[in-house]
Design brief:
The protein is mostly beta strands. Helices cover about 10% and strands about 35% of the residues. β6 and β7 form a beta hairpin.
Length: about 290
């Protein structure tokens, strides 16, 4: 009788062990938690309707080697506060739903710009009436906004390198009677730690270290890990700037505003890193891999 009880107990233990082992296999370390992690992000709607262009962020996962496997979704800014609030307005779907013919070989980012209007050293990637993508030449007319691309990075030291993001009309407080330096166009190569900068106080277009571009910012940011930067006009003159590090699943935010303490001159608030889990409610299947 004791032998039967002993065998029964051993059988129960073996069954429990097998069940635990099976459960552990499903969640073993190194198994991706999510199918999609963004590789880039851009201002704007996926399908632009003519309103609220600056209130949207579109996240893209271009890592798939096939066009159909490349995904995106879009969020909209609801309100700005101690904690900004966003809502998903375009759920995750294939980039084929934007337009046909997105280049399958692009697996990280298509260049700088906004949704469906990207520029890289080889071409401008835009859509033909929203139906299909095509690769347009970068205009070399001196009157063109893109002429400086030809003059500088297309033939300069960064020839062949792809930019990741840009800011337009970034205002840098100089701390002198409310004066600001207006950066008309800045193109960021975060993975190189440098940027091209066209502003109203320095002649020409300057290549500089990103840490020297953001004067006054605390020395806590790892610029070469930033994957994308987004500029949003949240209300009136206030600008929000979001910097995303998808590999380390974190971000930081800056705010610019007219400060009553500084006689209504421009002030900037710098924040530290936060987990991207707190940025928004990510759609199912999206998150850190």
């Amino acid at each position: 009788m004791k032998l039967i009880k002993t065998i029964s107990a051993m059988a129960i233990c073996l069954l429990c062990f097998a069940a635990c082992k099976k459960e552990g296999t499903a969640t073993k370390p190194g198994t991706p938690k999510h199918a999609n992690t963004p590789t880039c992000a851009y201002s704007g709607k996926a399908k632009y309707t003519g309103v609220d262009l600056g209130q949207y962020i579109t996240f893209m996962d271009l890592s798939s080697s096939t066009t159909a496997g490349k995904k995106y979704f879009t969020i909209k800014l609801k309100y700005v506060g101690v904690k900004d609030s966003f809502e998903v307005v375009t759920p995750p779907q294939s980039i084929d739903s934007l337009a046909a013919g997105f280049p399958a070989e692009i697996t990280e980012y298509p260049g700088f710009g906004s949704v469906n209007q990207w520029t890289n050293p080889q071409y401008r990637l835009i859509t033909n009436g929203g139906n299909s993508y095509y690769q347009d030449t970068i205009v070399r007319n001196p009157q063109s906004n893109y002429y400086f691309l030809y003059q500088n990075y297309l033939s300069g030291g960064l020839k062949g390198e792809w930019p990741q993001s840009n800011f337009d009309n970034y205002r840098e407080p100089l701390g002198i009677n409310g004066q600001v330096r207006m950066h008309f166009r800045t193109i960021f190569y975060f993975n190189k730690g440098i940027c091209f900068d066209a502003n109203n106080t320095e002649n020409g277009i300057n290549t500089k270290n990103i840490s020297n571009y953001f004067i006054g910012a605390p020395n806590i940011y790892e610029w070469e890990n930033v994957d994308a930067a987004i500029q949003i006009l949240s209300s009136g003159i206030q600008n929000n700037f979001y910097f995303f590090d998808f590999k380390n699943w974190r971000y930081f935010k800056w705010e610019q505003f007219n400060s009553p303490i500084l006689n209504n001159s421009l002030g900037t608030s710098f924040s530290g890193y936060e987990s991207l889990d707190t940025f928004c409610k990510w759609p199912d299947g999206w998150g850190k891999k």
